[in-house]
């Protein structure tokens, strides 16, 4: 009868072989299932689903997924090299992870591209995962950005100042005042009309109008165009000291209304606007908070109106009635766009659309419908997701974000 030690000796090769086989199977499983979450990043990334699995999810399942995982937005390149953190709570958006780590491309829910930083040779080299959305953003007017035809049929979503963008982010917006906000106090005024400008081109409509207007009233002019550059602090002081500020846009395009309007309002000056039609401004601010040059037959008539208001304080103060219930917030370039993109993706995971022409403000015209299947494996969609304009509840709770929090190179042309 064999001894027990002999039996153990016979079993050893079997046990060793079994352990080796088990290890091999574990390595093989890991290799063929690359979507296994890393322990350190699992809190951010959901396992990449198959296309059929993802497409068949109902809204309740997707909402539950939002509560469990962070939504990841890959910043392909920082806009104008201007970096920002991943805290989107100030915009009412939670569970967002913003990163520039391209190694997580296959797991990112969205990829965020800034038009002026997109280069043909720097686009992703591998197909876009079926669940992923490519987002195009740009805050310049069509006159001030180069058209890149090779971007057509490439993106799923647009994010910019136009209100018909998938993710509209205007340069500024009104939010309700709360009990903690101080009452509005009109700054001391010692100048009638002011204008601060750097980009001077005599062919621009705003320059032509200014040259006619200055014949009928005194305009205090500052900025590089007049050899009077101002610091950020001096800029605020000048605008606050003026009864009226010339909020003249450098070009006239649909919804192109920049900080030239919103900033003077936040500093206690009445904006005199030149840009899109009055109706465009009324989508952002009350009709009695600004003066539009189109309301007057000539620059002289406008000048006469400004002189009249200057001599009648009670009439002038009516332009500040909006301050009783609202305050102005300047949008946070780059960060707000990325955060609101994250929030949109959370709510529209199943909506995939491909846009022909990258967006609302790429020249020479607006949004076009998709005409062909895009490269890189993008998916088409049967319908466009709702646009969803910004609501007060989803905006920053308080505080103004000034130009000092914007890109150092000045993404915005004065």
Ordered list of secondary-structure elements with their pairings:
Elements (H helix, E strand, L loop, with lengths): L3 H29 L18 H5 L3 H10 L2 E5 L20 E4 L10 E5 L18 E6 L18 E4 L6 E2 L3 E5 L14 E6 L8 H9 L5 E4 L9 H10 E7 L10 H8 L3 E5 L3 H5 L8 E2 L6 H13 L1 H5 L8 E5 L4 H13 L67
Parallel strand pairs: 1-2, 1-3, 3-4, 4-5, 5-6, 8-9, 8-10, 10-11, 11-12
Antiparallel strand pairs: 7-13
Structure description:
The chain has 414 residues and is an alpha/beta fold. The chain folds into 2 domains: 51-169 and 332-405, no CATH class; 174-329, Rossmann fold, CATH 3.40.50. The chain has 10 helices and 13 strands. α7 links the parallel β11 and β12. It is elongated, with a radius of gyration of 28 Å.
β-strand amount = 5-15%
Sheet with most strands: 6 strands, parallel
Q: How much is the radius of gyration in Å?
A: 28 Å
Order of helices and strands: HHHEEEEEEEEHEHEHEHEHHEH
Integer tally of domains = 2
Helix count equals 10
**In terms of structural class, how would the helical and strand content be classed?**
alpha/beta
Widest beta sheet: strand line-up:
2-1-3-4-5-6
Q: Report the span from N to C terminus.
A: 99 Å
**Counted beta strands:** 13
Whole-number average pLDDT?
80
Cα shape: elongated
Low-confidence stretches: 30-50, 59-65, 356-361, 363-413
Estimated helix fraction: 25-40%
Could you give a short description of this structure?
The protein is an alpha/beta fold. The longest helix has 29 residues, at 4-32. The chain has 10 helices and 13 strands.
